[in-house]
Amino acid sequence: MAKEKLLLLDGNSLAYRAFFALPPLTNDSGIHTNATYGFTTMLQKILEEEQPTQMLVAFDAGKTTFRHESYGEYKGGRQKTPPELSEQFPYIRKLIDAYNIKRYELDLYEADDIIGTLAKQAETNGIDVIIVSGDKDLTQLATDNVTVYITRKGITDIEKYTPAHIEEKYGLTPAQIIDMKGLMGDASDNIPGVPGVGEKTAIKLLKEYGSVEALYEAIDGMKASKMKEKLVENEESAHLSKKLATIFTEAPIDITLDDLAYAGPNEDALLEVWRELGFKSLIEKSDMQSAVQEQEEIQLSIVDHVTAAMLKETMALHVELENEHYHSCDMLGIALTDGTDAKYISVDKALQSDELKAWLEDASKKKYVVDSKAAQAMLARHGIKLEGVAFDLLLASYIVNPAISGDDVATLAKEFGYTNVQANEVIYGKGAKWSVPEEAVLADHVSRKAIALWHLQPVVEKKLKENEQYDLYNDLELPLAKILGDMEIEGISVNVETLKQMGQALLEKIAVIEQTIYEQAGEEFNINSPKQLGVILFDKLGLPVLKKTKTGYSTAADVLEKLQSEHDIVKHILDYRQLAKLQSTYIEGLTKEIHADDGKVHTRFQQALTATGRLSSTDPNLQNIPIRLEEGRKIRQAFVPSKEGWVLFAADYSQIELRVLAHMCQDPTLVEAFKEGMDIHTRTAMDVFGVTNPDEVTANMRRTAKAVNFGIIYGISDYGLSQNLDITRKKAAQFIENYLQSFPGVKGYMESIVADAKREGFVTTILNRRRYLPEINSSNFNLRSFAERTAMNTPIQGSAADIIKKAMINMDARLKKEGLQAKLLLQVHDELIFEAPVEEIEILERIVPEVMESAIELAVPLKVDYSHGYSWYDAK
DNA sequence: GTAATCACG
DNA sequence: ACGTACGTGATTACT
């Protein structure tokens, strides 16, 4: 049998090390994970390298130890453990348990003492011992059979202390480490030592005298010096300090070496904890991922013929898709359950069944689904109009907590403690290994999803009601999903020819600029590579470096703009960048997304993604089509109506976020300004610059005021404003102060919303959407400041999102009621884009502003601007 | 996969 | 003193 090897870990010390060595990390639920992650990687590495036969992690027990009896101030004056670390200790314990590693703590004793005691016992029994800690004190335990591993700066970087290494490093024996600490003390443990004696002096003294005791026996013979005085004066302290630093190797532990046998982790439990903590890279690296989570049996039947008897009044329905691109991918299967057994129906059978089609289209038959919009869009491609969605797990989870990420049923289910369903990755694999399994496996997986939905519907709805968010979910998000589905399915026509011509013109221009840049640089290089560009600009041409990134020089537009006067090449690079962006993203990228069959693009609006409640748009993103610069704006000429004689109609909220702010803070000046229909940036300029007449406000003053207003919405900071306006921080701070003095209501609101967030842990919008801010009470300045700005911004941005969502629902109803052909196509945060027959424009001009302005009544009026034209470009 | 950049509100 | 504007998505380069 191989020689036994005992690994002893200092749990507290390693957790602290990991916490301070790694940047602040959090998982999807906002729990900090830097200590747990560092601890885990360290553990993984050491397990692999050492292959121990026995293991234990020791922890410090409560606050007081036997050392406090002889010295009350022991470890006094220590900083309180940061809450971001405290919250991680339970997970570290969970991790250790999942590894099947013994952990131990003992009242009145520190982890050191437990480790010392066990190390001694093991050595007596001829077992090799390795001790791992971040605390050098432990090196006193080193012997020929006991090696002490101390982590260096990182956590996986380790220095191995054997007696020989200690001799080499300090010229001392391990036992003399204690004497060294007795003389020099330890600030972190509040051990006094002898003032004025540091590491160097302590080592010198010990080389000469051997120990603290021997030193004091010989002290009379020492020649008079300042140091001798200090030593004499602090003799008592030296002895006490040595005593405190001595690790006790006779602790009354009630575990034996036999209890410490280590035979490897419980892989399922470990994966479970890793998933909870969001250690995706570790899960992927490990070969445990294939380990199938223990699943309860389910009752399911694969049906050949859908009968009316199978289709109940209320059922969980799952439509399994190949991937997230539901406008183009395949459907893999369908499962239904009413809480008894589950029915799995293959795609072929499902599409042949008129009974199923009728049931799916029957609004009175209630369906519990996940991602109703995806199911709606997929079924629509097969001529089935999904109706009667009564529960959508994706949306409900998002409302409970928008930080919950992922659209996999397994991921969402787990948030609510339901685990009887596998992650897609487990069933299909990922990347190149992705494949659809045999039907039995697929049927089981899809059925489990339906069963999960059935179980979760009451659980999640209860949670929504507890948080008073059921209305937001049921009356806003759920009906909105269907409207968004209709919009996506409808799509918007894009003229390929227009794009093609623009692309050709762009390519020619780009080629010319490219040559000019190469000439001015004196060589050819990849202009698209910031790294290569940096070398040309800052090394070769010697332009001044104004800003750096983590990896090198910054070549971002704001930096280049400041360098324009330095060299002609800069302007050309800016032009190149602008045109290259248009070409790659908006000409080539957009063209790829045009469906060949209808000449349209069908974006996907992500409804359960943003932290604030906004939508986002992907494949293609239609919410960032250029508008600010004329060259880019022309891209909009390619967006056209789908029918002859139709036009595009666009309506946007004017200053919706500032109006929301006015409503929430009730600042009299701000409210009044909106009620009187004033230009809000001019009004702000008057207050910030102290002028009484709007005519005195210059264009520049208004521009500055506009930036201040943005700053207010974003959670103002003087630095941010100074960067934006390219002014000094001091000036920016002055503007902010002027603003807050002029609008005391805003100041009060900002203060109270941050205070609320600190108390409740979350902020809310007008319709009670929540965003949790776990870092609002962090002791880390950056994290806390970020959370504070978020607390100020989210209610504003989120409430604006609430308003336009409500407007979309009301608008959809209104279009139906009026019997119009006009269709809503796009939403871009504060604007709605429709297409309509030209003869309906007059009606739209009347009803769209009316519906949008009355979506939610605020303390200030909402204002909507609108226009129409043959293309999106012309609807300005 | 991450970083840098840039498009939008 | 700390280092920053809020919220997104796509492309490219590079490891």
TrEMBL record:
<keyword id="KW-0540">Nuclease</keyword>
<keyword id="KW-0235">DNA replication</keyword>
<comment type="similarity">
    <text>Belongs to the DNA polymerase type-A family.</text>
</comment>
<dbReference type="InterPro" id="IPR002421">
    <property type="entry name" value="5-3_exonuclease"/>
</dbReference>
<dbReference type="InterPro" id="IPR036279">
    <property type="entry name" value="5-3_exonuclease_C_sf"/>
</dbReference>
<keyword id="KW-0378">Hydrolase</keyword>
<keyword id="KW-0238">DNA-binding</keyword>
<dbReference type="Pfam" id="PF01367">
    <property type="entry name" value="5_3_exonuc"/>
</dbReference>
<dbReference type="Pfam" id="PF22619">
    <property type="entry name" value="DNA_polI_exo1"/>
</dbReference>
<feature type="domain" description="5'-3' exonuclease">
    <location>
        <begin position="2"/>
        <end position="263"/>
    </location>
</feature>
<keyword id="KW-0548">Nucleotidyltransferase</keyword>
<feature type="domain" description="DNA-directed DNA polymerase family A palm">
    <location>
        <begin position="632"/>
        <end position="840"/>
    </location>
</feature>
<dbReference type="InterPro" id="IPR054690">
    <property type="entry name" value="DNA_polI_exonuclease"/>
</dbReference>
<dbReference type="InterPro" id="IPR002298">
    <property type="entry name" value="DNA_polymerase_A"/>
</dbReference>
<dbReference type="Pfam" id="PF00476">
    <property type="entry name" value="DNA_pol_A"/>
</dbReference>
<dbReference type="InterPro" id="IPR008918">
    <property type="entry name" value="HhH2"/>
</dbReference>
<dbReference type="InterPro" id="IPR012337">
    <property type="entry name" value="RNaseH-like_sf"/>
</dbReference>
<keyword id="KW-0239">DNA-directed DNA polymerase</keyword>
<dbReference type="GO" id="GO:0003887">
    <property type="term" value="F:DNA-directed DNA polymerase activity"/>
</dbReference>
<protein>
    <recommendedName>
        <fullName>DNA polymerase I</fullName>
        <ecNumber>2.7.7.7</ecNumber>
    </recommendedName>
</protein>
<dbReference type="InterPro" id="IPR043502">
    <property type="entry name" value="DNA/RNA_pol_sf"/>
</dbReference>
<dbReference type="InterPro" id="IPR002562">
    <property type="entry name" value="3'-5'_exonuclease_dom"/>
</dbReference>
<keyword id="KW-0808">Transferase</keyword>
<dbReference type="Pfam" id="PF02739">
    <property type="entry name" value="5_3_exonuc_N"/>
</dbReference>
<dbReference type="InterPro" id="IPR018320">
    <property type="entry name" value="DNA_polymerase_1"/>
</dbReference>
<dbReference type="InterPro" id="IPR029060">
    <property type="entry name" value="PIN-like_dom_sf"/>
</dbReference>
<keyword id="KW-0234">DNA repair</keyword>
<dbReference type="InterPro" id="IPR019760">
    <property type="entry name" value="DNA-dir_DNA_pol_A_CS"/>
</dbReference>
<feature type="domain" description="3'-5' exonuclease">
    <location>
        <begin position="299"/>
        <end position="465"/>
    </location>
</feature>
<dbReference type="InterPro" id="IPR020046">
    <property type="entry name" value="5-3_exonucl_a-hlix_arch_N"/>
</dbReference>
<dbReference type="InterPro" id="IPR020045">
    <property type="entry name" value="DNA_polI_H3TH"/>
</dbReference>
<keyword id="KW-0227">DNA damage</keyword>
<comment type="subunit">
    <text>Single-chain monomer with multiple functions.</text>
</comment>
<keyword id="KW-0269">Exonuclease</keyword>
<dbReference type="InterPro" id="IPR001098">
    <property type="entry name" value="DNA-dir_DNA_pol_A_palm_dom"/>
</dbReference>
<dbReference type="InterPro" id="IPR036397">
    <property type="entry name" value="RNaseH_sf"/>
</dbReference>
